[in-house]
Amino acid sequence: MNVSVCTISFRHGLQSIEHIAQWATGQGFDGIELWGNHARHLKPHAHVNGEWLESYGLTVSMLSDYLPLHDERAKNHFAAKNVLQLADRWNALKVRVFAGELGSEMIRKEERLHLVNQLRDVCKMAAEKNKLILVEIHPRTLCDTVSSTLQLLSEVDHPSLRVNFDVLHAWESGANLDEAFVQLQPFVEHLHLKNVVDRGHLHVFHPENVFNASASRQGMTSLFTGQIDYHQFLSNHDFSSFHASLEWFGHHPFAVLKEDKQKLVAYQKQTLYH
């Protein structure tokens, strides 16, 4: 498994991209998942780009951003053009987006059709640049369930549209994790790995909580100590050729991510020789 660290983990701390790159290399990460907001703030620094990051032995495995898919076509087209340019700068093949801001049970038929058309336009733009658009399994989006995600993939019907399989959010949807992964595997290009102590704390991952610097982080926990049994999930499938990101939103990101990376490597070595 190719493993990346997410720069969004450092959204509330003052850390330079140089420091993150040096640290990630030292911990044996293969790449970084670059948050779109960070990529935009780095634009004035012309020398900081994909080639620069490769000098650390790292790549941008995915550029994670958001698109105004509910808005008019011109606004969405402009945003997509900009994020694809950022992906070019960082030599990133994949751009992660959310499938709107309404859950599959909340969205009206005409709103869903509008979003599908918007996504198809973005996928056409991405294909021209040899990029992939990844929709993430996430609550309060059209990818809040496996069935709605599969429906969306069918509706958009474009080879550039793929899936970022967020393990926690797939579990949150009530799906059987193994069955969900098997169903979506033909479309999965990336995984997000994180955990929670129990279902009662899932609200800590709501965007309004994650992006509030003073909000509670109670319930977030390291990868192998939470409610999701990653030992079992990782054992049930062959992830050797997959790319994944350790996604940590809590306190002390350097310490937690270092420990999770070490445990993940140890677990992979253990399974390799048994």
TrEMBL record:
Xylose isomerase-like TIM barrel domain mapped to chain residues: 26-259
An example Gene Ontology molecular-function term: isomerase activity
Transmembrane parts of this sequence: none
Species per Swiss-Prot/TrEMBL record: Shouchella hunanensis
Keyword Isomerase belongs to the record: yes
The protein's name in its UniProt record: Sugar phosphate isomerase/epimerase
Superkingdom of source: Bacteria
SUPFAM superfamilies assigned: Xylose isomerase-like
Keywords: Isomerase
